[in-house]
Amino acid sequence: MDLQLSFKEIFSVTLVLFAVIDILGSVPIVIDLKIKAGGKIQSGKATIVAGIIMILFLFLGESILSLFGVDFASFAIAGAIVIFFLALEMVLGVDIFKQSPGGDSTTSIVPLAFPLIAGAGTLTTILSIRAEYQFENVLIGIIVNLLFVFLVLKSTDWIQKKIGHGGVNVLRKIFGIILLAIAIKLFRNSLGF
Q1: Would the pLDDT of 23 be above 90?
Q2: pTM to 2 decimals?
């Protein structure tokens, strides 16, 4: 197999995925999920699960969706529904996602690894850029983004201390509304409005 590494392609893929994943914009959501999980989010586990999902989609995305008879629009709508309810929790201060015993482990996967980090937008983007860029460059771009995601997830305690409880509450409401808007945009785009 002839590797065709291109720093230009790697940089482009990394930037596109960075914008779509938007882990910095998700910090208030991560802090909120962390508070609900009793102060524990498994950063490594969330990053690894998100990475597995993204890399599996890089290899098998179209096959997985077609195996279940699911099109991109339906997949995006499903992700939008989860994001919509997560945003409602943040804005209204209600609990929709109930924590099960040992919830810190499951919170690290749903909704953190999926759909927040490796959501419908990220997975659809991976399939789209896979058609445009060399496979190995897309894979490296994914790995670079995962490293950044891990660093941000590990830094949430520090960020939370810096902005305080009041700051977290304000950011929670603001980003909840932004998350609602993102969910609605996903709905509209998927339905062709």
Answers
A1: no
A2: 0.72
